[in-house]
Amino acid sequence: MFAAHLIAAYPDAKILITTRAEDTWVKSVSTLFNTLLRWHWSPLSRYDPVFPYDAPFHVQGYLDILHIVWNLWTGGDWRDEDALRRTFRKHYALVRELVPPERLLEFDPREGWSPLCRHLGKQVPRDVPYPNLNDLPFTIWFHEQLWWATARKAAVSVAMTWGLPVAGAFAALGWYWYPKRGPI
Asked: Cβ(26)–Cβ(81) under 8 Å?
């Protein structure tokens, strides 16, 4: 989405683009976006414990960005895998067109540190495994935990806001009713 702008803004930067099989990317991104965007976040967003509602960034803003990106990538039809494939190919073609080969590394993370460090002119870290954080089940699990934490905070907030006054009203009504008329 922002590749052309970032490449223009940093004309001397070394660029890294991860190589990925188109089919696995389409499956992964479809699963992630379609899972996250189906959950009902909006009513909970003001109770978000990670990104509070009055913070500059909160869960509703994040979801708005996801919707915009997903609609751009799919042309508005979230089931359109052909549109996703076109987006994938167009992005790679754009980066290859804009970045001179000496500044571009097409990188497969399974290769580990060596090609990355060589491209950046750095030493390969010793005794430091190359990180692997692109794990779809973990990413979905993480967002699910965020959703449940938000739901719990919302439930407590609603209970404190409405539950105590309602319970108090029933207690007052009971106090008023019981002594005058006896048990119902």
From this structure: yes
